[in-house]
Amino acid sequence: MVVLVLHLLQRLSSARTFFLTLGIVFLVPSIYCGTQEDTQGVDDVSPGSKTQNITLTALLEDQGDPTRWKSLIEPAMQKLMERHPDVDVEIKYTTSPYNETRLKILSALESKAPVDLITIDQIWLGEFAGKGLLSDLSNFTETWGRQSDWYQTNWDGGIYQDKVYGIWAWTDVRGIWYWKDMLEESGVDPRSLMTWEGYIDAARKLNSVLRPQGIEGVHLTGASHSPDLWYPYLWMLGGEIVTMKQGHPMKGAYWYPSFNGTEGVRALNFIKEQIDAGILPQKHHFWGEEFLNRKFAVMIEALQHHIPITTPLNRTYFEQNVGFIPMFPVPDHGTRTSTLMGGWEFGVPMTSAHKDLAWELITIMLEPGMLGPYLTKHANMPTQIPIGEGQYSLEPRKVVPYYDPLVSMIAKGDTRPSIPEYPQMAEFIKEALDVVYYGTKSPQEALDDAAEKSAKALGW
Hints:
Elements: H1 2-11, E1 18-29, E2 51-61, H2 70-83, E3 88-97, H3 98-110, E4 117-121, H4 125-130, H5 138-144, H6 152-156, E5 159-160, E6 163-164, E7 167-172, E8 175-179, H7 180-186, H8 196-210, E9 216-218, E10 220-221, H9 231-236, E11 242-248, E12 252-257, H10 262-276, E13 281-282, H11 289-292, E14 296-301, H12 312-321, E15 322-325, E16 339-340, E17 342-347, H13 355-365, H14 368-378, E18 381-382, H15 385-388, H16 394-399, H17 403-408, E19 413-414, H18 422-437, H19 443-457
Parallel strand pairs: 2-4, 9-14, 10-13, 16-19
Antiparallel strand pairs: 1-2, 1-3, 4-17, 5-6, 7-17, 7-18, 8-14, 8-15, 11-12
């Protein structure tokens, strides 16, 4: 077991996220450059046209590895050049940290910088589209005709006000991970983790045996993204973060906070029951490193991104020692589980003068034969059915631990709302969780306060 842990620690990649700023210089025949209001743009790359220098600038998320985009961008660019023999390409890029990049992209687009291609966090889509910073890709996608290849939730995650503004390229899902030897030592049946009551009972048993060894039984997220680990309990009970309501003072019908209904209160009460059972909220989050370091026996996380997967032996050895249950705990076995999906989308800014070329590059990168190996290399979950379940799933099944169970959760997953006000609402919901964590308010009081603040943010 010590050998396994040392091997995992040596191979563990950083979980911090960074962004890649990539400048692509095209030499192409003369083009027509659409205005900023032109949501498509036209690039004339026909033979015989006069050659011009064009800079196509992309801001891309790199997940902490400045080299990772090469394995996707370079073959995609090669294919683009084959389609357009007169195009010469030069690639330049810089990186920026995740916590700075959203503001950098917003600043660039709001100052009308000529950016042609971006990746955006799914939770940012509503904000960017609502501010008029993204091009409507609906006409492009209708001509493309590949919508049915996407899992429905992932396709819907790129839509704002019935128009397509982003294409969800890859995702993640969260489930229950556990060290088999720790559960066995504590006399805990892994199946007990599947229900709320069993999960809390298991935590008590694990803590009684493992805490003297410096190991926590169950990880409870108390960091900045703690709402993400609460939403699945809300969804499995039939609740929603927001619902459409009539009577908005300016918009007629608009979104209204609904997370403080009976479903939300019951879901947050399950968190309170965990606190009452002695489970400690963790303010600092290391995206699974703390689990792989054997500091926790059980953790709900999208851990698959951080497991060494370079050889099938790693997958097999990992599965022998670490178990996975593809679900969040449910109140009873008759309740359908849920999970939260995050991930990244491709978009074309309104400031792009070369939307056709940017869109074509996106479609090439999204081809299953192009994207599939990239996702496998980084253990990202697919948003496309042919990669998740079709012929392109054969390779990741060989190397990604628990690939099929992970993919099975995609159809059960849900997403945060694509509305401009969501990031602000998430802060209010986090405040509600915090006061319940530390016992200063009841779940109902905490959620009602968060809903009142959210309603004001939504303009009610």
